[in-house]
Amino acid sequence: MMAYPPPGGYNPYAYQNPYQQNPYCGGYTYSNSAYNVNYGQQQQAYNQYYSQPQMQQAPPSQQTNIVYNMMFNSDAAFQQAGAECLGMDLDDVEVSDVEDEEEEEDEDEDVKETRKKFKKKCKKRQKIAQKVAEKCAEEDDFLERVRASYIGRLAGHLAKDGTIDPTEGTVKPYKTYDAEDPVVAFINEKEGLDITGNDWDAERDCMYFDEAMQGLGTNEEAIIHICATRCNSQRQELKKMFKTAFGKDLIETLDGEVSGDFSEVLFALFEPPALFDALNIKKAIQGLGTDESVLIEILLTRTNAQIEEMKSVYGSINPDDCATDKDLECNIEDDTSGDLKRILISAAQGNRAEVKEEKLNDAVVPVMFHDEETDEDLPTGAFTIDMEKLIDPDRAQADAEVLFNAGVDRFGTDEDDFIRIFALRDTYQLRETYNRYVKLTQCDIENSVEGEFSSHSQMALITLIKSIKCRPKYFAERLTWTMEGLGTKDKDLIRIIVGRSEIDMVQIKEIFLEKNKQTLWNWIKDDCSGDYKALLQRIVGRD
Known about the structure:
Pfam families: Annexin (PF00191). This protein is mainly α. Among the domains are: 171-257, Orthogonal Bundle (Annexin V, domain 1); 357-386, no CATH class; 473-542, Annexin V, domain 1, CATH 1.10.220. The chain has helices at residues 39-49, 76-86, 109-138, 142-161, 182-191, 202-212, 220-229, 232-246, 250-255, 260-269, 273-285, 292-299, 304-314, 328-335, 338-348, 357-363, 393-406, 415-424, 427-441, 445-452, 455-483, 490-500, 505-516, 520-527, 530-540; strands at 364-371, 376-385. A hairpin with a 4-residue loop joins β1 (364-371) and β2. α6 (202-212) packs across α8 (232-246), α14 (328-335) packs antiparallel against α15 and α21 (455-483) crosses α23. The longest helix is centred in the N-terminal third of the chain and has 30 residues, at 109-138. It is globular. The two termini are 39 Å apart.
């Protein structure tokens, strides 16, 4: 099946698809209120740069959203796939600078700069698509090669995050030393070697790290640099290499050098993600009272694989302040009750349905345009995802009716049906169910849950709904909550920033910016201080 751009040309921000106007369907689509970030500016930017000749409108069955996630990172999966097949490096794709345009007088400079960079990403994506289209005219199999690479990257993200909504972390694997890295200058001074361009080396990082903790005082800037620019798997290598090279434990050595919230962030960064989640849950359960919000946040936003990995290490950790060695499910049984207990135990099974790669392969189709001169369908160089092939519309309709009958259409609530459907369906099936529920009831599913449930069970289901609709938006709201009002909820702030730094922090920041009209970097600057502030800012990045 082929898909065709609508009248006005290939413009993923500007066109209005009459068949996809419902804002509750979820996903990275321009019509989704959850991801309708900077839509006005994006539409204006894309109109300004990429107007194209009139093209044929597709029938409703083919009118799917043109490539997921162009609202944020201009579809990193497509850019990487296209550049790879073209034999290019993404950094080598040059586009012209973005011209200044009228902005609101009181708008923060960071906001203006972020919008400029977003528009530049749009231009880069368009350039790659054009080059792909040109190459398709030269090589018959080129489009299929790009498609295969694109599907492979989407499938990889599906395994990592449970969705094909390509997201991006601010902390990535550090591959080669650049000239500005302080480790380069350190090694040059110590060994007389220039390691610029060399592959990352755990031993050299450890030498720099050890030097930062020698003598009187501590070089906190050196510690911040290493911890914020190396990914978690590299930090695990650093821990092992440090003990091998110097015969002492890196974390214990750090513990004697740093303190306060700064040390809390550092120790969090050196925990493997599954252990970090398990530790946070155990601490939320320990002692008198339970912090249900932490259990809800972690268990209802993690993938099946993440939950299984967390359960595999949960029983083995027993820090001094967590006097329990029970497994996860036993702790939930003992410390929660009612509907919340059932919702959390259900989530702890890690058994939600997932989109199979075979379905994904069928759903990705090239976007074509009809050349009037040659009377041929030619590739635009881009792809669309036919969402109808990822979902079961009949089941979505049936589930929407079951939820309606279990809630607003009866006296009282049948909690079993809500828990069952919310726990079992995959992300895209639930998004379609939410969409059909709105059509059926003229009411958003969140509003219905707020009316049918209360207290922590309501919080849990609302968290699940928000996570299904748009996980980065949920975490942007949580980050706002940690810093708004008097005082800062530092433990929550640290947990979210560290936990999402390699997954979707880029998207979280952009939603945070739109929501608060100020960057996350600036909120941290106003709410935190000292090395603690500097480390958090380095993790999230200024833009």
